[in-house]
Amino acid sequence: MSVDPMAYEAQFFGFTPQTCMLRVYIAFQDYLFEMMLVVEGVILKKLDAIPGCQISPSQIRKCTEKFLLFMKDHFDKLFGRMEEVLLQLVLNIPKNVLLPEDKVHEQYPCSKEEFQALQEELQQLQQQCRAEAAAGEALRAELEEQKAVVGELEKILQCFNGLENICREHGTGNFKESFAFLTQNSKKLQDALKDIEEKSKKMEQRGQLL
């Protein structure tokens, strides 16, 4: 079999010429084996019709196998010549023939160096696309975080607005003063709570002593 990959022929035919020749070889070989079995069967029938014949079926099988090897050897030699002719003259695309789908290469020729440069440029563009995609994902994640922060700030703003409204309802217009007033009252409440807790502890200790 030919070792030439014949890629251009495979592009045109849709299969490699070597694959075609291999299938033809297998088909001829199978037909040869089947033919020898038919011949062997005919010989056995003829021998059965001859009275007193001393030739056994095993001897016929040995002779058939020898004849099959002889035929296969000659067939391989003939097929080798046929394969060479078919691959060179029938299943071969001449070097000066250009397939229709490759006409664009004739109009816009490209050297190996130019093709290599295009491949390198393509790889760079692919890397840039991947980097931009990653940056886009990061920006989207940051935007989601900003939306969450804005939501929290809006809640805080609503809380301050509510406090300001409460202060206005109680006659205090300045929010800073109201906030300071609330802070002072909160501290007083905390001190009072501590005082109550301390008195409660003392009362519990007295109760235990009694």
UniProtKB/TrEMBL annotation:
The keyword RNA-binding does not apply. Residues 108-142, 179-206 form a coiled coil. Pfam families: Mis12. One of its GO terms (biological process) is cell division. Keywords: Cell cycle, Cell division, Centromere, Chromosome, Coiled coil, Kinetochore, Mitosis. One of its GO terms (cellular component) is MIS12/MIND type complex. Transmembrane segments: none annotated. It is found in: Chromosome, Centromere, Kinetochore. The keyword Cytoplasm does not apply. It comes from the Eukaryota. Belongs to the mis12 family. This is Protein MIS12 homolog.
